[in-house]
Amino acid sequence: MQNTTNQIQIKPTDNLVTITQWRERKEDHWNNLGVNISLEESVEVHLKDFTNRHTKRAKEIDLRQFVRYLTDNGLLTIGDLGKLIAPELRIICEGFLDGLGQKKATLQRKKATIKVWFDFLQFSFPKLIKVKPKMDSDKYKLTRNKGVTKAMTLEEWFRLKQELEKSKKNPRLLVLCQCALLLGGRRISELLNLKWSDLEFEKSLVVIRPSKKSTDETIHFLPMTAQLKCLMESYRDSMNSWKYEQRVFPVRQQSVDQSLKRYGNKTGIKNLRFHSLRASFITWANERGDTQSEILNATLHKSTQMIRYYDRTSGMITNSITKLSGI
After folding, report:
1. Cα 136 to chain center, whole Å?
2. For residues 159 and 259, is the Cβ–Cβ distance under 8 A?
3. d(Cα 249, Cα 176) in Å, to the nearest integer?
4. Beta carbons within 8 Å of 63's beta carbon, 6+ residues apart
5. CA nearest neighbour of 82 among 120, 117, 126
6. Tens digit of pLDDT for each residue in 210-255?
7. How far apart are CA 294 and CA 297, in angstroms?
8. Dihedral angle at the C-alpha atoms of 292, 297, 299, 303, nearest 10 degrees?
9. What confidence tens digit (pLDDT) does each residue in 149-167 have?
10. Confidence band of 5 (pLDDT split at 50, 70, 90)
11. Do 34 and 79 form a contact (C-beta atoms < 8 A)?
12. Which of 258, 284, 259 is nearest to 156 (CA)?
C-alpha cells in the first residue's frame, strides 16, 4: 500500500487569514457600522425579540421616551452613547427617571427596561458599548410588605359566607368565592376566563388556562371535588340558558373586587379583596399541615417562595421546634 502522505500538497499559510482574525475583522466592520446607527433604529431591532404584544408595547413606550431624553441631551447614535463612561451613563439614566416624577413601581419597570436594552447594545456592539449604567441604588427598589394581601381566618370566611348567602342582589359572588377556594385559591382572571367547556363533570376535572401576561402557555388540570361539582351544577341549573363556549362568570373584575370589599366592611373584615382568597387558602393549608408539594399542586405556583409570600401563619405555630421532645 502506497504512502499517500507525500502526495498531499500543503499550501503556505502566510497569506491566509485565521478564523479568529476573520471574526475580529467582521466584528470591527459591524462595530464601525454601528457608530452611525441611530438609537431609534436600535430600539426597533431590540423590540423584535419580544413576542408578547403587551410586553412589547410597554417596552416600546418606555424606550421611546428614554431615547427622546437622550436626543435632547445630544446623544443621537450608538457611537455617541459609547463615548460615555459608567458614571456619566448612571447620571443620564437616573436623571431621566427622577425627572418623570412617577411612582416607584413605574420607575422600577422603566429601570429594568433600560437595563435590558443596554444588555442588548453591549451584546451587539461589544467594542462600542463597553460599559453599562450601574443603577443598583435603593432609590427605585420596592419593599414588599408581607401583609399586603389579607388572609381571612375560617371564622371570618364563614361570617362572610353567611352574609353573601343572604344577598339576593348578587348571588353569583358567593359561587365565585367558593369556586376560587375549592380550586386552590384561583386568581380572579383565571376564573373569569373559565368556560363551561373547561368543566369536565364526567371526569371530575377543571381545565385552568394561563391568564397572566407571560410566555408560559401551559394548561393545567385540577380535581373537581364533590362539593365543587354540586356547586357548579346547581349554579348552572339556576341560569336561564348557557352554552359550552360561554363564560361561566360573565362579570367584570373591578365590580367583583368592589362588591367583595363592600361585604367585607359590612362583616368587619377590612382590606378584603378577591386575591385574599388565595392567601387564605395557602394559610389554611399550612395550618392543616399540608406539605409544600400538595400546596404547589393546588395553587400551581412554580416555587415555594410564593407560598411563603402568601402564607400568614404564625411562625410560632408552624415550627418544627414545637414537634421536638424527649431528646
Report:
1. 21
2. no
3. 8
4. 43, 46, 47, 113, 114, 117
5. 126
6. 776 556 678 899 999 999 999 999 999 988 888 889 999 999 888 9
7. 5
8. 60
9. 888 999 999 999 999 998 8
10. very low
11. yes
12. 284
| The pLDDT of residue 224 | 94
Give Dmax (Cα) for the chain. 102
Q: Which of 89, 151, 105 is nearest to 279 (CA)?
A: 151
The CA-based angle 317-322-323, given to 5 degrees, is: 120
* Residues 216/51, Cβ–Cβ less than 8 Å: no
- Quote the cell numbers at residue 48: 423584535
What's this model's pTM, rounded to 2 decimal places? 0.57
Sign of the four-CA dihedral 298, 303, 306, 311 = positive
Q: Is the pLDDT of residue 180 over 80?
A: yes
The number of C-alpha atoms within 13 Å of 282 and in the hemisphere containing its C-beta is 27
- β-sheet with 199-200: strand ranges across: 199-200, 205-208, 220-223
37-59 in b/e burial notation, b at 16+ Cβ within 10 A? bebeebbeebbeebeeeeeeebb
Kindly report the number of other CB atoms within 10 A of residue 124's CB atom.
17
Secondary structure (3-state) at 4? coil
- Residue pair 307/292 in contact by the 8 Å Cβ criterion: yes
Residues making up the chain, counted from first to last:
327
Mode of pairing for the β-strands spanning 205-208 and 220-223: antiparallel
pLDDT at 299 over 80: yes
Tell me which residue has cell 427622546.
68
Distance CA 93, CA 112 (A): 11
**CA–CA gap between residue 232 and residue 230 (Å, rounded):** 6
Radius of gyration for the alpha carbons in the chain, expressed in angstroms and rounded: 29
